[in-house]
Design a protein that fits this description.
This protein has 13 helices and 12 strands. The chain is of the alpha/beta class.
């Protein structure tokens, strides 16, 4: 987590809100004219591209509006300050935000599960133990890839000092460094893993996905999967308009299902609406992106399993504890 993001989350503690009780069962208000959605550019926003292209109208005339935002750092203050009603956040950021101020956000759904792969030209890598003595470039220090990888290395009883995790290359540059043989091993989310495989598929040592981290997580009994992306709602909005929130979530679910079923159409649509992705790459990446839609309450066990990895290695990154029941929108 960047220092800027940490500072932004801390400001939540200073925000005075009218819904200080944080209860979701207070008297309901008249339906608003708009439901404002913050969409992260990149793969996290892919499942929402269809809604951006054709904004739905909910209930008695509430129109959904969408703002594409370049980073979590930029999206977070908009949620905190009341400029957005719904947004997309990594699970650890959402948990920290809630733990610092339970009246800030609630988790509504898991919308993206594990989409990380160990990518390399080294055909000998078939298990985590094969990485001993190697340096692995990791996309995202202080984020899900780092702590999932550390958890898996511990589970595989691979000595922690025998694998070097390198965070020196910005995520967009890792695929190119791998293709050009400047690095040998990389832990990459989609669509960067797809880019590496597409651009490094020539010669007698093509770039391949040597390990699916999702499958490895499952193999070590850590859960069926782990979430990488949550849809969250401003707690006050979810409290005042629970049925409207549910109506939006139903539209979002349908959009994700369509995206998974129609990658050839969804890829170009993502480029059209301005998510910062090339249509052809997005289309190829979608089958590996592991988009899903699981109500947060139903996905609580999966969310807590992932957050437990942050709690083990960097407790402050989720606010020092697992979030309580109030975190999960019902």
């Amino acid at each position: 987590m960047t220092k800027r993001l940490f500072a932004l989350i801390l400001t939540v503690q200073l925000v005075t809100v009218s819904f200080a009780s944080g209860k979701l069962d207070a008297p309901r208000k008249a339906q608003p004219d708009t439901l404002r959605v913050g969409v992260l550019a990149g793969p996290s926003g892919l499942g929402m591209a269809r809604l951006i292209d054709n904004p739905p109208t909910l209930g008695d005339g509430t129109v959904c509006t969408f703002e594409i935002i370049g980073s979590v750092d930029a999206l977070l203050p908009k949620l905190v300050n009341g400029d957005l009603d719904v947004g997309i956040l990594p699970p650890n950021v959402a948990a920290k935000l809630y733990n610092l101020n339970p009246t800030s956000v609630v988790a509504t759904a898991i919308v993206g599960n594990g989409m990380i792969s160990l990518v390399t030209r080294d055909a000998s890598v078939r298990a985590l133990g094969d990485l001993e003595g190697k340096t692995v470039s990791v996309a995202g220090q202080g984020a899900t890839p780092e702590y999932v990888m550390k958890t898996l290395l511990d589970a595989a009883k691979v000595p922690s000092n025998s694998v070097t995790l390198d965070f020196s290359i910005p995520t967009p540059g890792i695929a190119a460094a791998l293709v050009s043989d400047k690095i040998g091993y990389a832990l990459l989310p989609e669509p960067f893993a797809t880019v590496a495989v597409m651009n490094g598929n020539s010669g007698d040592r093509p770039v391949v996905r040597a390990l699916s981290i999702r499958e490895t997580w499952k193999d070590y009994g850590l859960g069926e999967d782990f979430p990488m992306t949550l849809c969250v709602a401003a707690a006050g909005f979810a409290r005042d308009y629970p049925e409207l929130t549910k109506a939006f979530l139903d539209q979002y679910r349908q959009s994700i299902e369509w995206t998974v079923e129609n990658p050839a159409e969804a890829g170009p649509l993502a480029e059209k609406v301005g998510l910062g992705l090339k249509g052809a790459i997005a289309a190829k990446a979608i089958p590996s992106c592991n988009f899903t839609f699981v109500n947060a309450e139903e996905g609580k066990r999966s969310i807590e399993s992932l957050l437990a990895t942050f709690l083990a290695y960097a407790p402050a990154s989720i606010g020092g504890k697992l979030p309580d029941e109030g975190f999960y929108f019902k």
